[in-house]
Amino acid sequence: MSVEQTVKMPAAPRFARLRTFLDGDLVYGFLRTPSAVISAIVLLVIALTAIAAPLLSPQDPYDLTQLYLDKAELPPIWTAEGQAPYLLGTDVQGRDIFSAILYGSRISLMIGFASVIVSVMIGIVVGLTSGYVGGRIDNLLMRIGDLVLSIPTLLVAILVSAIFRELLPVSMRDAFTPVILTTSIAITSWVQYARIVRASTMVEARKEYVLAARILRLPPLRIMLTHILPNVMTAVLVTATLNLGLAILAEATLSFLGVGMPVTQPSLGTLIRIGNQYFFSGSWWVVLFPALQLSLIILAVNLLGDWLRDALNPKLR
């Protein structure tokens, strides 16, 4: 065997897992489900345009020096009074709606993904501990979860957001608003993941491979992370995908109620709140286009989550 063949041999296993995944049932089913493919493309386009907002937008909506009051309430460019480069018109502050939607989508997606990640992490820790340890710890953690669920989600988010805002100095509130919103949403949504992980952990803990690991006296933390956790992540992944749309909608609701992103850094919810005040005065584009963007994101996420739930359901295979 030559030296060149010896060097090239390790490259084969490197792509074996990727080829196996691409040839698997999940990708096969995805490519043959039009709603899932279209939803994934829509989300990818929205995410890429949001990331590249500084390159695509003709204006920085967060820079007050680029806002001109003489350009306020301009209609979309395809109307008689429209002006370039304001493709979707402007709001009452002279802010370009198209630019504001791109930047606002970035904030909404960022807070939505961050809140889901934080809530998943909390839910996994609580669920694994509760399901594996059991006893009083299980009862205590589940009663805390019941307490969180007994209070309306939106009320808890508003309360947590208000507490954080009061604890922070006025000069720091706007800068920490994304962190506050992420924490507020995550605190109210971790219980669902905890219950799913707890139920799956209780089932997996009775199986032979976990009993064998206990006989070998492996540390409980290692058993939970390396043996049980990989087998419960499927249900967590499906739930996280479905809840991403709810997290984005929760951020938009908080911003619409005035306890979310400030006017100087508007998200989609803030843009809808601002535009709603001028909807009946004739400036319909100020609220319509951000609302359509938000609806499109949530619809695409829900369709993709529904497909993923059906694709990973062993009863439907």
From TrEMBL:
Subcellular location(s) per record: Cell membrane
PROSITE patterns: ABC_TM1
Entry keyword annotation includes Cell membrane: yes
Domain ABC transmembrane type-1: 105-305
Keywords recorded for this protein, A-Z: Cell membrane, Membrane, Transmembrane, Transmembrane helix, Transport
InterPro entries: BP-dependent_transpt_permease, MetI-like, MetI-like_sf, OppC_N
GO cellular component terms listed in the entry, alphabetical order: plasma membrane
The keyword Metal-binding appears for this protein: no
Database matches in Pfam families: BPD_transp_1, OppC_N
Entry's transmembrane regions: 36-56, 107-128, 140-164, 176-197, 232-263, 283-305
Biological process terms in GO annotation: transmembrane transport
UniProt topology in membrane: Multi-pass membrane protein
Domain of life: Bacteria
Family: Belongs to the binding-protein-dependent transport system permease family.
Protein name, entry field: ABC transporter permease
Protein species of origin: Mesorhizobium zhangyense
Taxonomic path: Bacteria, Pseudomonadati, Pseudomonadota, Alphaproteobacteria, Hyphomicrobiales
